[in-house]
Amino acid sequence: LAQSLRLPEPLVGKIELAVTEAATNLLKHAGQGKIILRPVGRSMLELLAVDKGPGMADPDKCLRDGYSTAGTAGTGLGAISRLADLFDVYSQPGKGTVLLAQFDVPSKTIPSNSLVLGAVCVPLTEGDACGDDWSVIEHASRSQLLLADGIGHGVLAAEAAERAVEAFEKSPHRSPAGCVEAMHGPLRGTRGASLAVTEIDQMNGVVRYSGVGNIAGCILNGQTARSMVSHNGTVGHQMPRVQEFQYPWQPGSTLVLHSDGLLSRWKLDGYPGLLARHPSIIAAVLHRDFQRGRDDVTVLVGRSANRNGGSS
Ligand SMILES: [Mn+2]
Prior knowledge:
6 helices
């Protein structure tokens, strides 16, 4: 994946080392787990290592070289954190560990008003086409996010979701409702999709949301969670009246969007401190603990850049 992104050779080497360390850690400490890799833009690669193993009581202690519970050299976590440009870890005894490492081509600057996004988008069966897809378009002070879930799963679902992403990326200046309306035509002749377009307008402190079908969205503010409203229907087939709703957005708000491969009744109550971690860690924990296990799953988590959790 790193090579296909044409990342420079030294960075590919770092990624190789980090993935090997992360996989070794999974086997050694948890016995099993998942490595999830994705490109972030064109110059960054993200590594998530997710397990349901014994977890760590004190991740900071495990980060210091020389500390290890498995009687090994104990360089794993410390080495990964030094190789990575951004590193974060969330661990709970008895529940498991999620480790995040991002590898970035130097000199890439991130606009200060942009959104920090976490994403897990994986097919039901590893190696199959994923019937979910998503995309983000950054405007000056607004970020627009599409999440599309092609009906069913497999290749035909993936085709519908891909078509939605194409249409979305061709109409970047529309409102969320305008985007959803514009996708109905292109999706005719496919299986159709559930989809939602979310616009985070950080300058005006609002989120605009328009959804059709089973995409769930909510905005978390500390202890409160506000669900966003989607209408029933299938874009490309049965299109209801498309509506757009507005919700307040604060600098510390967190957006969570997911396809119906994730149970709708998740809660972060049992995860102290998780909301302050990097959005990718939150997405990975939700995916690990609340996936239904019978559909493709996408979880997107967004937060304003100036409130980015985790250390780099
Ligand atoms: Mn689905």
